[in-house]
Amino acid sequence: MKRIIVTRFSAMGDVAMVASVLAEFQAQHHDTEIIMVSRKFFASFFENIPRLIYHPIDPQGKHKGLKGLFGLFKELKDYQPNFVADLHNNIRSRILDILFSFKGYQTCILNKGRSEKKALTRPKNKIKKQLQRTTERYADVFRNLGFEFTLSHKITRVERQLPRAIQDTWRVEAKKIGIAPFAQHKYKVFPLEKMEQLIHYLSDNDYIIYIFGGGKDEQNIANAWQAKFKNTINTIGSYTLSEELAIISQLDLMITMDSSGMHMASLVGTRCLSLWGATHPFAGFLGYGQQYSDCIQVEHTDRPSSVYGNKPCICDGQEAIDLITLEMIIDKLQAMV
Predict the structure, then answer these.
(1) Number of independent structural domains in the chain
(2) CA distance 152 to 302
(3) How far apart are CA 326 and CA 76, in angstroms?
(4) In sequence order, what are the beta bridge partners of 295?
(5) What is the extent of the structural domain holding 190?
(6) Are 173 and 131 in a shared domain?
């Protein structure tokens, strides 16, 4: 077995994309074993990938600081790897790369394409073109290590067993829509009052709605929607990440922002309708295997403003995500489901 250490510590959507890539890599290479290094919470993304060992990093605990990273290096060196694939290219992963290189291990580091992304998102004279997909950038790391690797860019439905708590209320005959209405950065988030109108529409038309993603504040919002609209179920705070993936795997459609919910849908092969404002699919972060035609966005000369959605994107006095109307979503939804 050729043993490859793969590092990608965050963010949630990026780690989910790594899982999609590794699933295809392992299907094409039966003589490889992956040591996946990421945060403990993300382990569920990788649980069905063959010949993969998950090694959690604890950046706030035993792996904190230079001393902690050296300890992590010693832990990983015990696997006696052949290669190190750095799919993160941040300070922590680069320190590990240096340590492994110093000991003679072959390493390869992700090219993030920063200059291209800067040209796409700069305020003036944007160069608006499709950049290389992030998943292809990940695949390039393995190719540069000497592996032949071709990504299919197709989603494959992988239905997981539903959690027991939801089985009794699961209506097989009904159309089931997942909604991930929140995102880490506010400039990606579709206005909540419009999202409530969408949930109202879905509820009135006998769809079953499952709401995903977020912390305590988002849980309270979703609880209010659950109480207000029939057939609306809030999953936030009630299920593990693995159980959420199982529910998503059996939905008819996911509706998300440019967020981790989109990448979770890709991981289990569920088609996704995605909403884009400050960010743009051109940056390469469309969910693996998802279709560009399933993105809803309003093209404007001032879009996009950022790669990650952490900067405002004002288009003719409105935030870019606000340009999307409820009617656009409903029309697209009716054509997809």
Answers:
(1) 2
(2) 33
(3) 49
(4) 274
(5) 164-336
(6) no
Question: How many CB atoms sit inside 10 A of residue 242's CB?
Answer: 14
The C-alpha atoms of residue 98 and residue 104 are separated, in whole angstroms, by: 10
CA dist., res. 223 & res. 118, Å (int): 39
**Mind giving me the DSSP string for 60-72?**
TTTT-HHHHHHHH
Predicted confidence band at 188 (pLDDT cuts at 50, 70, 90)? very high
Q: What pLDDT band is residue 171 in, cutting at 50, 70 and 90?
A: confident
**Torsion region of 213: left, alpha or beta (phi above 0 gives left; psi -120 to 50 gives alpha):** left
d(CA 282, CA 113): 12
Residue range 240-252: mean pLDDT, rounded: 97
DSSP notation for 57-124: E-TTTTT-HHHHHHHHHHHHHTT--SEEEESS-SHHHHHHHHHHHHTT-EEEE----HHHHHHHHSSS
Instruction: Give the 3-state secondary structure of residue 186.
Output: helix
- Is 90 exceeded by the pLDDT of residue 159? no
Report d(CA 130, CA 174) in Å as an integer: 37
- The predicted model scores a pTM of 0.97
Residue 157 lies in a domain: no
Q: Give how far Cα 283 sits from Cα of 47, 130, 322, Å.
A: 28, 7, 20
Check: CB of residue 275 under 8 Å from CB of residue 258: yes
In degrees and rounded to multiples of 5, residue 196 shows phi and psi of: -65, -40
Q: Is residue 58 part of a domain?
A: yes
